[in-house]
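ping. complex inputs:
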Amino acid sequence: MLKVKNLHASINDKEILKGINLEIKAGEVHAIMGPNGSGKSTLSAVIAGKEEYEVTKGSVILNNEDLEDLAPEERAHKGIFLSFQYPVEIPGVTVTNFIKTAINETRKAKGLEDLPAKDMLKLIREKADLLEIDRKFLSRSLNEGFSGGEKKRNEIFQMAMLEPKLAILDETDSGLDIDALKVVANGVNKLKSKDNAVLVITHYQRLLDYIVPDFVHVLHNGKIVKSGGKELALELEEKGYDWVK
Amino acid sequence: MDLKEKLVSSFLAFENKGGLDLDSNVHNIRTKAIQNFEQEGFPTKKDEEWKYTSLNSVLKHDFSLFPETAKPVGFKNVKEYLINDIESYTLIFIDGVFSSFLSDTTHDDCDVCVLSSALTRPKYKMVVDNYFNTIAKNNNSLTDLNTAFSVEGAFINIPKNTIVPKPIQILNFSTGSEKEVMLQPRNLVVVGENSHVQIIERHQNLSKNTVLTNAVTEIFVHKRAIVDYYKIQNDTENASLVDSTFVSQKQQSVASVHTYSFGGKLIRNNLEFYHEGEHITSNLNGISILNKKQHVDNHTLVNHKFPNCESHELYKGIYADKSTGVFNGKVIVQQEAQKTNAFQQNNNILIDDGASINAKPQLEIFADDVKCSHGCTIGQLDESALFYMQSRGIPKKEAKALLLFAFGNDVVEKIKIPQLKTRITKLIAKNLGVSLGFDF
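pong. complex structure:
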């Protein structure tokens, strides 16, 4: 599904990614772990198409299509979803209005009509229940004044609504207590299928107890220095990142 | 002959035109006003209050002062500028002349009619003598100019204990019957104790010709009365507007003036609130959305003279292309005005490099037990918010529009007439160049 080939990317002429190779197949869960500053968030932002980053070499290919020239929204329309480490607060736009706009813009890009209001409402309720989200929460301004847990839950709610092919969860566990972590992980697991894939980016092993990866990659200084099965995460937890450097 | 000389010398012609009671108190006021104007002339950028707004480009035209209404105007020509889906009283003026054919006035429970008739009818003499030009006087030369030629406009006189059942729409159209026209509408609004009225005002150029409107409105709000006044400024590129509004409030009254500036060549809004009692609330709300080389200047004043009053001021601006904005918010809290709550906020977004805003909060506080705040921001669209929205599939253009919409939304939320709210929302969407997939 996703092929990252020899990806080099820099911001303000500083090279952050120095040749990443990664292949994710449908139905798989991959985890990328690494110390702070290793390039984890850069990798997720580059896959999602953030314009500040310049891809200097290599490519990101989704279902045989090179994403190079696609804007972030076009990548989203093709099925890439990035759950933000720090979701942005947007005062004045409610959760409901935001997700409606996102859904209908995605449908428009696919040549579909807007989802009828009734169906939209039903879908919103269904997905909100999945993530144990209070209905009142849906009429609040997006992320404004949300707790860390509410923000992350809202990210996964949007993921549930948009049904992406590839979901990238960037530090989704940060700012979550254990109960919220379970709800979020449970949501992700329910959305998982043989047709989609998940890329979990995390500093700690904790989240991987709940979203169990098929593959774990260790990122260090802009390169994947080690790959393995889920046991690699446990080993890292025990021995620390110095072990792989 | 420059415009000032032309205006001064036209005053004689104005007097000789007939229809004016030259011995009246009002005419006495007019005569003094033209003398003041002759002395002061038009304001220039040397005046502190006009530092950022130059009238030069507007005043160079050879304006006709008493335009002929040659072009017939029917309902179909003006329909789209009315809020049509509500019952309302309407006062429609074509090139400064009242159109009884297009208007819907009343004298039943309250008077919704025209100044020209109020000035000549004995039954309104007392109202006119008590209120006319009592708060607009000695303000500035443009107000004097309006006073000198004041003969027509809305006259709204609400007796006490009256809830006016439907909003009043005041529309001033110019037809372009002459190439360059100057209009001087003058409105007088008196709202009695415990009464409530909603007013929507609009100036609209129906042609491509040049128009300068120099409007003055005086509003008197008696004890416990409530007034909501909405100004829609969405005129053509050749229309300029100087709009001066003066509000005098008695105790426990609530007066709100909302100003939506979306179009016009140059707009200068002078909005002044004077308190004449305790427990008064004054609300000042505004949104400006400009592009091209448009210019809007919002000059506001709230003069707190009595204790226990509050004022809430919220102005937002979105400036694109080479448009320019000015916000000058003056709040005076006099020594006697203890326990005043005065809040002022002015937020601006500059979309393009060529756009600019000059913002000047001006607080003069002479009382010591007060709560006053002011905040002023000038920013650009939040790039991280844009990326966030894009990553959810919302194209950049729509994401920008949504952010701008959200930015102005708290001002729109204050509109109390739902149909007007819808109209303003649509106007904003149109100005931002997007169609929105949902209602706010």
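The CA atoms of residues 246 and 272 of chain B lie 5 Å apart.
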